[in-house]
Protein backbone atom coordinates (compact mmCIF):
# COMPACT_ATOMS: atom_id res chain seq x y z
CA UNK A 1 0.00 0.00 0.00
CA UNK A 2 1.44 3.34 -1.08
CA UNK A 3 0.44 6.26 1.12
CA UNK A 4 1.72 9.63 -0.08
CA UNK A 5 4.80 7.95 -1.51
CA UNK A 6 5.61 5.83 1.56
CA UNK A 7 5.09 2.09 1.15
CA UNK A 8 3.38 -0.07 3.77
CA UNK A 9 3.79 -3.76 2.90
CA UNK A 10 0.80 -5.74 4.14
CA UNK A 11 0.35 -9.50 4.35
CA UNK A 12 3.91 -10.58 5.23
CA UNK A 13 3.51 -9.61 8.87
CA UNK A 14 1.13 -7.91 11.26
CA UNK A 15 1.65 -4.18 11.65
CA UNK A 16 1.32 -2.62 15.07
CA UNK A 17 -0.05 0.91 15.23
CA UNK A 18 0.91 2.78 18.40
CA UNK A 19 -1.61 5.20 19.85
CA UNK A 20 -0.47 8.80 20.42
CA UNK A 21 -3.11 10.94 22.11
CA UNK A 22 -2.45 14.66 22.01
CA UNK A 23 -5.57 15.57 23.96
CA UNK A 24 -5.54 17.64 27.17
CA UNK A 25 -5.90 14.50 29.31
CA UNK A 26 -2.35 13.55 28.36
CA UNK A 27 -0.88 16.92 27.34
CA UNK A 28 -1.40 20.32 28.90
CA UNK A 29 -2.03 22.48 25.84
CA UNK A 30 -1.67 22.17 22.09
CA UNK A 31 1.70 22.69 20.47
CA UNK A 32 3.69 23.46 23.62
CA UNK A 33 7.37 22.57 23.09
CA UNK A 34 7.49 20.17 26.03
CA UNK A 35 4.36 18.40 24.83
CA UNK A 36 5.79 18.05 21.34
CA UNK A 37 9.08 16.69 22.69
CA UNK A 38 7.20 14.21 24.89
CA UNK A 39 5.08 13.10 21.94
CA UNK A 40 8.15 12.56 19.75
CA UNK A 41 9.96 10.69 22.54
CA UNK A 42 6.95 8.43 23.05
CA UNK A 43 6.69 7.82 19.30
CA UNK A 44 10.41 6.98 19.12
CA UNK A 45 9.97 4.50 21.99
CA UNK A 46 6.97 2.85 20.32
CA UNK A 47 8.91 2.51 17.05
CA UNK A 48 11.89 1.01 18.90
CA UNK A 49 9.44 -1.46 20.43
CA UNK A 50 8.27 -2.46 16.95
CA UNK A 51 5.42 -0.15 15.95
CA UNK A 52 5.39 0.68 12.23
CA UNK A 53 2.51 3.14 12.42
CA UNK A 54 1.61 5.87 14.87
CA UNK A 55 -1.95 7.19 15.17
CA UNK A 56 -1.98 10.87 16.18
CA UNK A 57 -5.30 12.02 17.62
CA UNK A 58 -6.30 15.49 18.84
CA UNK A 59 -9.94 14.82 19.74
CA UNK A 60 -10.96 12.17 22.23
CA UNK A 61 -13.46 9.64 20.90
CA UNK A 62 -14.17 8.07 24.26
CA UNK A 63 -17.86 7.48 25.00
CA UNK A 64 -19.43 10.80 26.00
CA UNK A 65 -16.56 12.93 24.65
CA UNK A 66 -17.52 16.22 23.03
CA UNK A 67 -16.18 17.79 19.84
CA UNK A 68 -13.08 19.96 19.51
CA UNK A 69 -13.04 23.00 17.15
CA UNK A 70 -10.91 22.64 13.99
CA UNK A 71 -8.37 25.29 15.10
CA UNK A 72 -7.86 23.61 18.46
CA UNK A 73 -7.45 20.17 16.90
CA UNK A 74 -4.94 21.55 14.39
CA UNK A 75 -2.98 23.30 17.15
CA UNK A 76 -2.69 19.94 18.93
CA UNK A 77 -1.76 17.65 16.04
CA UNK A 78 0.22 19.72 13.48
CA UNK A 79 3.30 20.51 15.62
CA UNK A 80 3.49 16.86 16.68
CA UNK A 81 3.16 15.52 13.13
CA UNK A 82 5.82 17.94 11.84
CA UNK A 83 8.20 16.93 14.62
CA UNK A 84 7.67 13.18 14.04
CA UNK A 85 8.13 13.50 10.27
CA UNK A 86 11.50 15.15 10.83
CA UNK A 87 12.84 12.64 13.31
CA UNK A 88 11.18 9.18 13.29
CA UNK A 89 10.77 6.73 10.39
CA UNK A 90 7.16 5.64 10.82
CA UNK A 91 3.85 5.74 8.99
CA UNK A 92 1.78 8.52 10.54
CA UNK A 93 -2.00 8.39 10.57
CA UNK A 94 -4.06 11.32 11.74
CA UNK A 95 -7.11 10.31 13.76
CA UNK A 96 -9.71 12.81 12.56
CA UNK A 97 -13.06 12.88 10.80
CA UNK A 98 -12.68 16.53 9.78
CA UNK A 99 -11.54 17.12 6.19
CA UNK A 100 -9.71 20.37 6.98
CA UNK A 101 -7.75 18.75 9.81
CA UNK A 102 -6.94 15.83 7.51
CA UNK A 103 -5.81 18.14 4.68
CA UNK A 104 -3.44 20.12 6.86
CA UNK A 105 -2.16 17.03 8.66
CA UNK A 106 -1.39 15.33 5.34
CA UNK A 107 0.37 18.48 4.11
CA UNK A 108 2.39 18.46 7.33
CA UNK A 109 3.57 14.93 6.52
CA UNK A 110 0.96 12.41 7.70
CA UNK A 111 0.48 9.40 5.40
CA UNK A 112 -2.99 8.12 6.29
CA UNK A 113 -6.28 9.36 7.71
CA UNK A 114 -8.01 7.33 10.43
CA UNK A 115 -11.66 8.33 10.02
CA UNK A 116 -13.75 6.89 12.86
CA UNK A 117 -16.92 8.01 11.05
CA UNK A 118 -16.05 6.12 7.83
CA UNK A 119 -16.73 9.29 5.76
CA UNK A 120 -20.06 10.06 7.49
CA UNK A 121 -18.61 12.92 9.55
CA UNK A 122 -17.54 15.28 6.77
CA UNK A 123 -18.65 15.13 3.12
CA UNK A 124 -15.35 16.67 2.02
CA UNK A 125 -13.13 13.97 3.53
CA UNK A 126 -12.96 11.51 0.60
CA UNK A 127 -11.91 14.17 -1.91
CA UNK A 128 -9.13 15.40 0.39
CA UNK A 129 -7.79 11.86 0.84
CA UNK A 130 -8.11 11.18 -2.92
CA UNK A 131 -6.33 14.38 -3.94
CA UNK A 132 -3.52 13.85 -1.45
CA UNK A 133 -3.09 10.15 -2.40
CA UNK A 134 -3.24 9.23 1.27
CA UNK A 135 -4.26 5.98 2.91
CA UNK A 136 -7.73 5.87 4.46
CA UNK A 137 -8.93 3.85 7.45
CA UNK A 138 -12.71 3.51 7.43
CA UNK A 139 -13.98 2.63 10.92
CA UNK A 140 -17.55 1.65 11.70
CA UNK A 141 -19.35 3.57 14.42
CA UNK A 142 -23.05 3.55 15.26
CA UNK A 143 -24.04 7.07 16.34
CA UNK A 144 -21.51 9.63 17.62
CA UNK A 145 -19.04 9.35 20.52
CA UNK A 146 -21.51 11.37 22.59
CA UNK A 147 -24.42 9.00 22.00
CA UNK A 148 -23.00 5.70 20.76
CA UNK A 149 -23.18 3.77 24.03
CA UNK A 150 -26.86 4.59 24.66
CA UNK A 151 -28.18 1.03 24.31
CA UNK A 152 -26.84 0.14 20.84
CA UNK A 153 -28.93 -2.48 19.04
CA UNK A 154 -28.41 -4.70 16.00
CA UNK A 155 -30.31 -7.62 14.49
CA UNK A 156 -26.99 -9.09 13.37
CA UNK A 157 -24.03 -6.95 14.36
CA UNK A 158 -21.61 -8.63 11.94
CA UNK A 159 -23.74 -8.29 8.82
CA UNK A 160 -24.78 -4.72 9.69
CA UNK A 161 -21.23 -3.53 10.36
CA UNK A 162 -20.00 -5.33 7.25
CA UNK A 163 -22.70 -3.76 5.05
CA UNK A 164 -22.00 -0.31 6.47
CA UNK A 165 -18.27 -0.63 5.78
CA UNK A 166 -18.99 -1.91 2.27
CA UNK A 167 -21.09 1.21 1.68
CA UNK A 168 -18.29 3.49 2.94
CA UNK A 169 -15.76 1.71 0.72
CA UNK A 170 -18.03 2.29 -2.28
CA UNK A 171 -18.38 6.00 -1.40
CA UNK A 172 -14.62 6.38 -0.99
CA UNK A 173 -13.87 4.72 -4.32
CA UNK A 174 -16.61 6.67 -6.15
CA UNK A 175 -15.02 9.87 -4.87
CA UNK A 176 -11.63 8.91 -6.19
CA UNK A 177 -9.86 7.23 -3.28
CA UNK A 178 -7.67 4.48 -4.73
CA UNK A 179 -9.03 0.99 -3.94
CA UNK A 180 -5.48 0.02 -2.88
CA UNK A 181 -5.34 2.70 -0.20
CA UNK A 182 -8.42 1.71 1.83
CA UNK A 183 -8.30 -0.13 5.18
CA UNK A 184 -11.44 -1.26 7.03
CA UNK A 185 -12.11 -1.52 10.77
CA UNK A 186 -15.29 -2.82 12.48
CA UNK A 187 -14.85 -0.25 15.28
CA UNK A 188 -14.68 -2.34 18.43
CA UNK A 189 -16.45 -0.39 21.22
CA UNK A 190 -18.04 2.25 18.99
CA UNK A 191 -21.79 1.86 19.44
CA UNK A 192 -21.47 -1.75 20.57
CA UNK A 193 -22.14 -3.63 23.78
CA UNK A 194 -19.56 -6.04 25.25
CA UNK A 195 -21.54 -8.87 23.61
CA UNK A 196 -21.47 -7.12 20.22
CA UNK A 197 -17.69 -6.68 20.48
CA UNK A 198 -17.17 -10.36 21.28
CA UNK A 199 -19.49 -11.36 18.42
CA UNK A 200 -17.55 -9.14 15.97
CA UNK A 201 -14.27 -10.73 17.03
CA UNK A 202 -15.65 -14.29 17.00
CA UNK A 203 -16.87 -13.78 13.42
CA UNK A 204 -14.06 -11.48 12.29
CA UNK A 205 -13.32 -13.71 9.31
CA UNK A 206 -16.59 -12.45 7.75
CA UNK A 207 -14.80 -9.18 6.93
CA UNK A 208 -12.15 -10.88 4.78
CA UNK A 209 -14.52 -11.11 1.82
CA UNK A 210 -14.53 -7.29 1.54
CA UNK A 211 -10.98 -7.76 0.20
CA UNK A 212 -9.48 -4.87 2.13
CA UNK A 213 -6.76 -4.81 4.75
CA UNK A 214 -8.32 -5.14 8.19
CA UNK A 215 -7.42 -3.03 11.23
CA UNK A 216 -8.58 -3.95 14.75
CA UNK A 217 -8.52 -1.74 17.84
CA UNK A 218 -9.26 -3.57 21.08
CA UNK A 219 -6.56 -2.05 23.27
CA UNK A 220 -7.61 -1.81 26.95
CA UNK A 221 -11.28 -1.48 25.91
CA UNK A 222 -14.08 -2.02 28.39
CA UNK A 223 -15.28 -5.36 26.98
CA UNK A 224 -11.90 -6.75 28.08
CA UNK A 225 -12.39 -5.24 31.53
CA UNK A 226 -15.85 -6.75 31.48
CA UNK A 227 -14.55 -10.28 30.82
CA UNK A 228 -11.59 -10.08 33.20
CA UNK A 229 -13.04 -7.82 35.89
CA UNK A 230 -9.94 -5.62 35.66
CA UNK A 231 -9.37 -1.84 35.42
CA UNK A 232 -7.94 -0.10 32.36
CA UNK A 233 -4.28 -0.33 33.45
CA UNK A 234 -4.57 -4.10 33.96
CA UNK A 235 -5.77 -5.13 30.52
CA UNK A 236 -2.53 -5.72 28.63
CA UNK A 237 -2.79 -9.55 28.67
CA UNK A 238 -6.45 -9.43 27.70
CA UNK A 239 -5.57 -7.06 24.89
CA UNK A 240 -2.76 -9.36 23.71
CA UNK A 241 -5.19 -12.31 23.63
CA UNK A 242 -7.51 -10.34 21.34
CA UNK A 243 -4.55 -9.31 19.17
CA UNK A 244 -3.52 -12.96 18.66
CA UNK A 245 -7.10 -13.96 17.91
CA UNK A 246 -7.59 -11.06 15.49
CA UNK A 247 -4.40 -11.93 13.58
CA UNK A 248 -5.48 -15.56 13.29
CA UNK A 249 -8.82 -14.35 11.86
CA UNK A 250 -7.48 -11.93 9.29
CA UNK A 251 -6.27 -8.70 10.93
CA UNK A 252 -3.40 -6.93 9.14
CA UNK A 253 -2.94 -4.04 11.57
CA UNK A 254 -3.61 -3.80 15.32
CA UNK A 255 -3.98 -0.47 17.09
CA UNK A 256 -2.61 -0.56 20.65
CA UNK A 257 -1.35 1.46 23.62
CA UNK A 258 1.10 -1.18 24.95
CA UNK A 259 3.37 -1.63 21.97
CA UNK A 260 6.10 -3.87 23.40
CA UNK A 261 3.82 -6.61 24.72
CA UNK A 262 1.56 -6.59 21.68
CA UNK A 263 4.45 -6.62 19.17
CA UNK A 264 5.74 -9.75 20.91
CA UNK A 265 2.29 -11.35 20.82
CA UNK A 266 1.89 -10.39 17.15
CA UNK A 267 5.32 -11.72 16.11
CA UNK A 268 4.61 -15.04 17.85
CA UNK A 269 1.18 -15.30 16.25
CA UNK A 270 2.65 -14.42 12.84
CA UNK A 271 5.14 -17.29 13.21
CA UNK A 272 2.25 -19.69 13.85
CA UNK A 273 -0.30 -18.30 11.44
CA UNK A 274 1.37 -16.69 8.43
C1 LIG B 1 -10.21 3.02 17.54
C2 LIG B 1 -9.81 4.16 16.84
C3 LIG B 1 -10.36 1.79 16.83
C4 LIG B 1 -9.68 2.98 14.86
C5 LIG B 1 -10.13 4.66 18.91
C6 LIG B 1 -9.63 3.87 22.26
C7 LIG B 1 -10.74 4.61 21.65
N1 LIG B 1 -9.55 4.15 15.51
N2 LIG B 1 -9.79 5.18 17.71
N3 LIG B 1 -10.08 1.84 15.49
N4 LIG B 1 -10.39 3.36 18.85
N5 LIG B 1 -9.43 2.94 13.54
O1 LIG B 1 -8.51 3.83 21.75
O2 LIG B 1 -9.91 3.29 23.34
O3 LIG B 1 -10.73 0.74 17.36
S1 LIG B 1 -10.24 5.68 20.32
Identify the notable features of this structure and list them briefly:
9 helices, two-stranded antiparallel sheet, binds ligand 7PJ, 8-stranded parallel β-sheet, 274 residues, alpha/beta
List the helices and strands and how they pair.
Elements: E1 2-3, E2 6-7, E3 15-21, H1 33-48, E4 53-57, H2 70-85, E5 91-95, H3 99-108, E6 112-115, H4 125-132, E7 135-139, H5 157-174, E8 182-185, H6 194-202, E9 215-216, H7 222-228, H8 236-248, E10 253-256, H9 259-273
Bound molecules: ligand 7PJ.
Ligand 7PJ binds next to β7.
Structural class: alpha/beta
Distance between the termini: 19 Å
Helix count from the secondary structure assignment: 9
Taken from the alpha-carbon principal axes, the silhouette is: globular
Side-by-side strand order of the widest sheet = 8-7-6-5-4-3-10-9
Low-pLDDT stretches: none
How many strands in all?
10
The biggest beta sheet reads:
8 strands, parallel
Secondary-structure element series: EEEHEHEHEHEHEHEHHEH
The radius of gyration is: 17 Å
Helix share, percent: 40-55%
Amino acid sequence: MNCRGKTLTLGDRTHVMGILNVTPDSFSDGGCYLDVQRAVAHTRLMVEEGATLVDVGGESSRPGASQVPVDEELARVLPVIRAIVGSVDVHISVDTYKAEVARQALEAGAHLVNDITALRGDVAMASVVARMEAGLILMHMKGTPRTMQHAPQYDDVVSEVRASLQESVRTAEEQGVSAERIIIDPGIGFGKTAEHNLELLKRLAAFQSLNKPLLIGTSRKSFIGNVLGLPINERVEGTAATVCWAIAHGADIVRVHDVKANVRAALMTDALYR
